[in-house]
Amino acid sequence: MSQSEVARKLHLNNSIISRIESGDRKLGATELAKLADLYAVSVDYLLGRSNQKNPHQNPASSDTTDLSGFLADTGSAHLTFKGKMLSPEQTMKLRIALTQIFWDELALPQR
């Protein structure tokens, strides 16, 4: 996106965008929020305080694991903690804890 497009979308003068890019002018909070919205990233990402572009978006499906599959699977899961495989006892305790956490979602509808 060109400077003039950014300026137009943010309702700013081209020279202001140029001064911001060169470091001669700082962004105000409102301008920073508008810029983050324009690029669909978080303000923290623009400020360099986060590597995650938008923490409110759902992560890519390859980055997620549905825990319902783990709870439904009675076989041995290959889970690690700090690089070490969980023992069968630890896996069982994890299943129990997750079942308690998600009890309302797991409970069968009553007839």
From TrEMBL:
For region Disordered, the annotated ranges are 50-69
| Molecular function GO terms recorded | DNA binding
Polar residues: compositionally biased ranges: 50-67
Question: InterPro entries recorded for this chain?
Answer: Cro/C1-type_HTH, Lambda_DNA-bd_dom_sf
Instruction: Please name the SUPFAM superfamilies in this protein's record.
Output: lambda repressor-like DNA-binding domains
HTH cro/C1-type domain residues: 1-46
Task: Specify the domain of life of the species encoding this protein.
Answer: Bacteria
Coiled-coil regions in this chain? none
Question: What name does this protein carry?
Answer: HTH cro/C1-type domain-containing protein
Mind giving the lineage of the organism this protein is from? Bacteria, Bacillati, Bacillota, Bacilli, Lactobacillales
